[in-house]
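Subgroup meeting minutes
Present: P.N., E.W., G.H.
Scribe: E.W.

1. P.N. recapped why we're keeping a running log of single-chain structure predictions: easier to compare across weeks, and new members can see raw inputs and outputs side by side.
2. G.H. added today's entry (221 aa).
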Amino acid sequence: MSSLPFAPPRCFLPPKVVHADTDILVVDKASGVLSVPGRDINNRDSLVSRLEPDYGQVRVVHRLDFDTSGLIVFARHAAALSNLSKQFQARTVDKEYEAVVWGLIEQDEGSVDLPLALDWENRPRHRVDHDQGKPSLTHYVVKERMDNPARTRVTLLPVTGRSHQLRLHMEALGHSILGCPFYAPPAAQAAADRLLLHAAGLGFDHPASGERMNFYSPAPF
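Output recorded in log:
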């Protein structure tokens, strides 16, 4: 069994809070920061641990991978956590990601519908598993095709929220996300100095007022 530890934090910039009120925090996470503290003592630094000195207890609604940047919402009390969690479970939260992938995607848009499961012997990797995997669906829309090397900028719209879903679905399509240390071939890994995956759009109902809130963060790559 192999277990790939998290790399030491690469970004020490303070958290970029784009919205704060008594119920929620919306943060634009940098690549190279854990969303929540890891179990290992060397992985205790995280977005949560950096926010709590200024905002008190922060409750985790969802997560972004260490290498992924972009928008993430936290709850500031139990009632907000319950409300937001139900929205994620009901799939009424709008999530939009931007990525740059290896090679040229032929179709202008499409979907990847493949079940995913944890690859226990190679944690934290996951895999496509038609026997025990959980249903996973991602829609994609091509934004730009580029040359030298051939790569594609794409909008990803996940319907489900499985771990490594976007990485695996793009890899299954034959177009790994650039900079991905888990699934991309060596040339695609070396083509970027970080994972080129960014949570660009996030929309949900405010847990107290019910007002629809939409946030957008342009990709930094």
